[in-house]
Structure formats: C-alpha cells, structure tokens
Amino acid sequence: MCRHCRLVRVFVRGGILWGLFVVMLLPAAMALAGEREPLAILQLGAGTEWGLNGGDPGFGPTAAVEFNPIKNWLAIETGVTTLFGKGRTEWDTELIFKKPFDLSPSVEFEPGIGPAWIRTIGSGRATNAIGTAVVAEFMFWPTPDRKLGWFLEPSFTYSFGNGHEKSLGVSAGLLIPIK
C-alpha cells in the first residue's frame, strides 16, 4: 500500500473518531447554549478555487456544519466542497478549528485552520492527498433573532500530495441555525 493511501486511511479513521467525539459533545453544547445560541449552524452555498501552481479554476456547491463546544472561544466546522473544473472533479473535505470574534451585534469573524482531504478525479484516474486549510470566515446576521444569515469565507489550501498544490478559494452562502 502506498504511503499516501496509508495517510488517507489514517485521516479517514481519525475523521470518524473526531465525528464520534463531536457527537458526544453536542449534548453538552446544547445544555450550555443560551436562547440566542443555536446548537449548530448549517452552511449551504457555492465555492470556487484557483490553483496557484497553474491549472483551471473549479466551481461548485459547498455544505458545512459548525458548532461551538466552548462558547466565544472555539468553533469547529466540518464540511465538503465539490469543485468542477475543466476535465476534473475535486472533493475537498475539511475539519476547521476556529476562534470566533464578534465585530458587531450582526457580524462575526472566525479565523481558523485544520486538516483537509482532497480527492481529485480527472484524466481517467483518482488521486487523494492530505493538506491544510486556512480560512477567514465572516458571518452576517441581518436580523437580531438570527434566524437566517449569510457567510463569506476566503481560504488557502496547501496539499502535501505530489506537486504540493497551493490554492486560493472563496465560498459564500446561507447560514441556517439549528436550534
């Protein structure tokens, strides 16, 4: 088995363990959440990414779930983006650890970093790579009750796979609190 395949297997197993850890934390987060704080926030939108090593840009849908296990200190977001480019399809799966900052009653800023798994299918073959993603998310809540909002999330991704691809991306969409 190749070295990259072993890394992907460890990452996927680790992701499953993180997922179980997250599920165990959700009841505690729910108990600590006030009326204003949701249990989690669903993010649905669209994203694009440009490779800094060359290549064509990719565009596609994005979906993520975010929750705050430690209020005003730690937000954890896990999500997937599917990017369609010229002759290729890429799935970026990320687990991002972010620090929330309230810029105003209706605007939040959350810088973060975390591992990424990048699966690319193109030219009749599939490749998997582990990488790191750095994000700077802005969340906008137009009403005080925060029933619906929107987000803008610029990102930088570095792949540890062959070629060490670097890319800049941006995603935007709706924020749907889950109470």
Number of strands: 9
Determine the number of helices (DSSP H or I, runs of at least 4 residues).
1
In the CATH hierarchy, what is the class? Mainly Beta
Radius of gyration, in angstroms, nearest whole number: 17 Å
CATH structural architecture: Beta Barrel
Major sheet: order of its strands? 1-2-3-4-6-7-8-9
The poorly predicted ranges are none
Residue share in helices?
10-25%
Taking the alpha carbons of the first and last residues, their distance comes to 44 Å
The SS-based structural class is alpha+beta
Number of discrete domains: 1
Describe, in plain words, how this protein is organized in 3D.
This protein has one domain: Porin (Beta Barrel), CATH 2.40.160. The protein contains one helix and nine strands; from the N terminus they run H-E-E-E-E-E-E-E-E-E. The protein is elongated, with a radius of gyration of 17 Å. 17% of the residues lie in helices and 60% in strands. Strands 1-2-3-4-6-7-8-9 form an eight-stranded antiparallel β-barrel. It has 179 residues and is of the alpha+beta class.
List keywords for this structure.
alpha+beta, 179 residues, single chain, Porin, 1 helix, 8-stranded antiparallel barrel, elongated
Task: Summarize, please.
Helices cover 17% and strands 60% of the residues. By secondary structure, the chain is α+β, with helices and mostly antiparallel strands.
How are the secondary structure elements laid out?
Elements lengths: L2 H30 L7 E12 L6 E13 L3 E12 L2 E11 L2 E4 L2 E16 L2 E16 L8 E11 L6 E13 L1
Antiparallel strand pairs: 1-2, 1-9, 2-3, 3-4, 4-6, 5-6, 6-7, 7-8, 8-9
